[in-house]
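Write out this protein's structure.
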Amino acid sequence: MSESPNQNPAGPEAAPGRFVEAIMQREQEKRAAAAASARTDARAPQSRRGMMLVALLPMLVGLVAWNVALTLREPVVFTPDEESAAIRLKVVLTAVSIEDFRRTNGRLPDGLETLGLSDDGIDYHIVEGRYTLRAESPAGTVTYRDGQDLDRLAGAWDVFRRERR
């Protein structure tokens, strides 16, 4: 007995089972491909982060070096002209305080501490009822004698005026 080419050796009952197996195999292949793709996609952001870190590292090192260099040098608070002007203005304010004390009390103060001022850098001397103030500045000695015009010292304020641009 010979089999005809149209007959299936396993019989017509086996066809639905093979069909289901083929569909399941295709689904497993799709899932495996999707999992492989997900692993590749998960690695991509990590490698981008690494590349960004390598690219930003020189900038970070440069900023740290710049900040260290800035903290090591002495900050410039006042220029020599500004420092001299500040000392002249301090002498003016001290002289005005002394004059106010004299007007109120009828006498000169015994010391700058009496006025509530420190004698920080200013020498105060009384000779025959008149006083002298002396202070050292980068531009030289600033001296004010009782009765002199304070406007020549008060002009130091112009040094601190800055035009806004």
